[in-house]
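Continuing the batch. This is chain 6 of the set; chains 1 through 5 are on the previous pages. Same settings as before, nothing changed between runs. Recording input and output for traceability.
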Amino acid sequence: MQLIKTLSTTFLIAVTTLLSCRKDNTTTKPEHEKLSATINIMSPYPNQVFKYGDTVKIVADVFAETKMHGCNAIILNQRGDTLFSANAHEHGSSIRLEKEWINNIVTTNTLTLKLICFMDHDGNTCEKTQTIQTQSEQK
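Output for chain 6:
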């Protein structure tokens, strides 16, 4: 049931991103050319540890040779459940994503931060993942 909820949330975000912008007249690359982007995550750093209530600042720069159509940030737990999802719906060859999530996990866990960049309206994406850690409260 949780997997269905996670997949539905991710699908809804992707569809919303793709449908909410107007398709412009750009040159289509040949099918054999893979659209790609460079994704630089400045914050959080890999395996950074967050305690309950800490603010997780997500800052990333994305660069591509073509005009992109937005970027999503998703935080997943080890089961693949979506804990946080945010969208930067911007068009351009460079996108800066700045979002915040308040850690509401009280136990020690490894989470995955996934950035998904939408390269076009045809479903081409680029992704980058990195792990972050939550730490249980010690009393």
